[in-house]
Amino acid sequence: MKQQLLVIGAGFGGLWSALSAARLLDMHSRNDVEITLLAPQAELRIRPRFYEPDVHSMFAPLTELFEAVGVRFVKGTAESIDEQSRKVGYRDETGRAGELSYDRLVLASGSQLSRPPVPGLKEYAFDVDQIESAAHLESHLMSLRNQPANRARNTVVIAGGGFTGIETATEMPARLRAVLGEDQDVRVIIVDRGERIGAVMGDGIRPSIIEASDSLGIEWITGATVSAVDANGVTLADGRHIESHTVIWTVGFRASALTEQLTAQRDGQGRLHVDGNLKVRGLQNVFAAGDVAYAATDDIGNFAAMSCQHAISLGRHAGNNAAADLLGVAPTQYRQPKYVTCLDLGAWGAVYTEGWDRQLKLVKAEAKELKTQINTVWIYPPAADRRSALAAADPLIPVA
């Protein structure tokens, strides 16, 4: 009977885990291990692009790729993990319960937007966290043209001035005018708890954020939080009310709730503490990749962020090492010392930095060209060609 290597999740971490495991088995000419990937869809959803229009197209099908590299796909949503029996319970698209056994598990079930108990948030706010919710926002934006012209219709409020909030906000003036007309006076407001514009992004990026915001007419309300959302806008903690028919929540992300089913240490975002080989600390048969892994990127105190930049490399190492554990061969230690940031700033351009201290390297058109390359080419999966796909999954490939 074949040993079972199970990957949960078809995001960046899960996809690259499966490919990397298949690569190692191929290198050692082993056919006594079966790789299974469990996910709701056989597609890589390009989450970093969900702030853009035409979000329904932001995915890449994976069926042919899985067939090319010998990965078995099971369509379903994982619901439970039993460490003792080494079984994962799931439900398929019809709601029928199923179960998968594993000898090694790679948990790569991703993260979700945090939704605190803010009154009206669930009923009235939009988000760009998942393709379905981003598509719901897009449909709403298209429907604005059918509403009477007024301040609330023409105003978008973004709750959160982090990476997602800024990219969503800077894209929004063009999206609104495409729907309402180029002559419309549109208003985009970012509400952020930071005391300074773009404070969370650091000094290297903040001047570009300020310049882009001024150029695009984006307003910032800093040192503020949203205390309630209603059909006509938001109320801030200081009592101010902003009229808006479009409120977008982008504040905070948390690892998949599946991490809570494991008897392992987690960080404040629910991510599992892993060792240098991405094995979950304290567990013998479980590895973690992507947004569920709290992994050191270097020896000076930096840890992987919830980003595709880190998820791809984490997946390459986690899949490789889970397979190596079964084959009895040496693992590869995860290290990713190079860190870059490329922030889209809408029609103004973009800003690109290197290092955890975000040293400015490119701005405006040059950075925008790089951002477009990243978003439309680099983060997409390889072609469904066995040889090239497996080669691309080498954990020693540097990822910037």
What does this structure look like?
This protein is an alpha/beta fold and 400 residues long. The protein folds into 2 domains: 3-113 and 253-338, FAD/NAD(P)-binding domain; 121-249, FAD/NAD(P)-binding domain (3-Layer(bba) Sandwich), CATH 3.50.50. The chain has 9 helices and 25 strands. The chain has helices spanning 12-27, 63-69, 121-124, 131-143, 163-180, 206-216, 308-327, 364-378, 386-392, and strands at residues 3-8, 33-39, 43-45, 59-61, 72-75, 77-82, 87-91, 97-101, 104-107, 111-113, 125-126, 155-159, 187-192, 218-222, 226-230, 233-236, 241-243, 246-249, 253-255, 272-273, 286-288, 293-294, 340-344, 350-354, 359-363. The chain has a 5-stranded parallel sheet with strand order 5-2-1-9-21, covered by helices on one side. Strands 11-18-12-13-14 form a 5-stranded parallel sheet. The protein has a 3-stranded antiparallel sheet with strand order 6-7-8, with no helix packed on it. Strand 13, helix 6 and strand 14 (218-222) form a beta-alpha-beta unit. Helix 1 runs parallel beside helix 7 (308-327) and helix 1 crosses helix 9. The chain starts with a strand and ends in an 8-residue tail after the last helix. InterPro entries: FAD/NAD-bd_sf, FAD/NAD-binding_dom, NDH-2. Belongs to the NADH dehydrogenase family. One of its GO terms (molecular function) is NADH dehydrogenase activity. It is an enzyme of class 1 (oxidoreductase). This is NADH dehydrogenase-like protein Rv1812c/MT1860.
